[in-house]
Amino acid sequence: MDPAFIEIPDGDTTWRFETAFLTSNWTCIWGRGCVGILPQPAAELGHGCCSIGADIDGEDEAHLISALAATLEPSRFEHHGAAAEGGVFADSSRSSTRVVDGACIFLNRPGFEGGAGCALHLAAEDMGESPVGLKPSVCWQLPIKVDWIPGDGGTESATVRRWSRRDWGAEGETMAWCCTEGTEAYVGDRPVIDSMAEALEEVVGTEVYVELRRRLDP
Fold it and tell me: Which of 4, 44, 46, 186 has the fewest C-beta atoms under 10 angstroms from its C-beta?
């Protein structure tokens, strides 16, 4: 057993958790020094990791994002006009969101009167809801990554870890930085197991998350 990972069985799935990341003080520093994922540092653009369209996890998620987009008010959605004219997806496959003016169509830019940041995220907060589940899953999960590996007899292994450059594909080779590398983003006031509790519980389920918390308690 790899001591760098905690293993928790859950029926036919064995979950493996990267201990060092979950106990680290990583935090998102969008708008607070994040230089983005373009080839050159560009903190002033406020793109964060939204310079490319968000991958959509299947048709059900595409339906959800399309429905949520239709509820957004122009005052809270900078690219409302572009969405109304050409939709929010890159093409008919609906496998990723559109890029408009160099970033995801849902990203309100710095200076937008309705607020900078993801329009879906802002709308969820306006409703008093958690953004988890109300925007593309890759967005609310980042920088959590799950590697699924099939096993024998219908079993599988699911490794929960931090994203790395290789997970970004071709963009990872040229982007200015990856926020899980270096030290800049490790400035949070609590560990990831706490700060990303909602996302982790949504990914692994309540029972596994509770057991994970028990294992990681001092």
Answer: 44
